[in-house]
């Protein structure tokens, strides 16, 4: 049996207000060292985690959103964002950060990590996983 | 079947640690294996030996400590989450220059890698949280 499993990290909460989003990202970064097949899902208020132009100076907490742009270096290149969750919050893909990775199987071409998927597609993505961690 | 368990909410405020405890006890009673339970987010607060709930209430930490002793379940507390919330073992207390530690018997502090490893090595990872 292969030691590689499909891990999905489900991010459902806003980036600030609670610590779930930050501590989820910490798991993703540590987990990257285990060379598993990793995907991230963003739904409900979790879609706010990827918005651009976050400023946290007034909150006294770290703005960790730039870290998402480094995920490609950790071979974390599949960030699924639920379309309906964006729309329900008046957001669109244009409100999200541009997050790219270099595809080693395609002459290191730069490709977007964010993939907008429908709620129905998200169901399929979740069913396809071995381990789902929800934050 | 081999289960891994993740607890991500704190004791008493939230029922997650109680439900997880009942789940682990039942799973083992039915012949399943639960090699490890991982405590994350406020779940790390289960591991302080300094909590003193009223005598007619359950003591969640003591329930887990007894379960670990009886069935050899590895109770792992995330070090990063623990440090934020003031959960320290003897080593960490001395490393951080603190005058006390509070981790209860049966629990050990380690890294998030233990959570990922649990996901890899078990058949199912079950999360108890919000």
Automatic annotation (TrEMBL), chain A:
Signal peptide location: none
InterPro entries on file: DsrEFH-like, Sulphur_relay_DsrE/F-like, Sulphur_relay_TusC/DsrF
Top-level taxon in the UniProt lineage: Bacteria
Family: Belongs to the DsrF/TusC family.
Protein name: Sulfurtransferase complex subunit TusC
Native source species: Marimonas arenosa
Automatic annotation (TrEMBL), chain B:
Chief location of this protein within or outside the cell: cytoplasm
Superkingdom of the source species: Bacteria
Record-level Gene Ontology MF annotations: sulfur carrier activity; sulfurtransferase activity
Example of a GO cellular component annotation carried by this entry: sulfurtransferase complex
UniProt keywords, alphabetically: Cytoplasm, Transferase
Localization (cell): Cytoplasm
Entry keyword Transferase: yes
Biological process terms in GO annotation: tRNA wobble position uridine thiolation
Pfam families from the UniProt entry: DsrE
Coiled coil: none
Family label: Belongs to the DsrE/TusD family.
NCBIfam families tied to this protein: PRK00207.1 (NF001237), sulf_tusD_dsrE (TIGR03012)
Name the record gives this protein: Sulfurtransferase complex subunit TusD
């Amino acid at each position: 049996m292969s030691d590689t499993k499909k891990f999905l990290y489900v991010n459902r909460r806003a980036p600030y207000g609670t610590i779930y989003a930050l501590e989820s990202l910490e798991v993703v970064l540590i987990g990257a060292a285990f060379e598993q097949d990793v995907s991230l899902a963003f739904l409900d208020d979790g879609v706010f985690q990827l918005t651009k132009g976050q400023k946290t100076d007034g909150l006294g907490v770290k703005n960790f959103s730039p870290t998402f742009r480094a995920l490609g270096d950790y071979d974390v290149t599949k960030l699924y964002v639920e379309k309906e969750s964006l729309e329900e919050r008046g957001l669109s893909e244009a409100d999200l950060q541009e997050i790219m990775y270099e595809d080693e199987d395609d002459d290191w071409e730069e490709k977007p990590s964010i993939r907008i998927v429908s709620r129905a597609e998200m169901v399929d993505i979740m069913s396809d996983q071995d381990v789902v961690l929800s934050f | 079947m081999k289960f891994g368990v993740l607890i991500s909410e704190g004791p008493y405020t939230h029922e997650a640690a109680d439900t997880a405890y009942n789940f682990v006890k039942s799973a083992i009673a039915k012949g399943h294996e639960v090699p490890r339970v991982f405590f994350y987010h406020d779940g790390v607060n289960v591991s302080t030996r300094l909590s003193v709930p009223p005598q007619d209430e359950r003591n969640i930490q003591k329930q887990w400590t007894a379960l670990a002793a009886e069935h050899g379940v590895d109770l792992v507390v995330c070090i990063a989450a623990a440090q934020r919330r003031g959960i320290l073992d003897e080593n960490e207390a001395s490393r951080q220059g603190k005058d006390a530690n509070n981790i209860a018997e049966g629990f050990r502090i380690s890294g998030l890698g233990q959570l990922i490893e649990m996901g890899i090595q078990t058949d199912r990872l079950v999360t108890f949280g919000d």
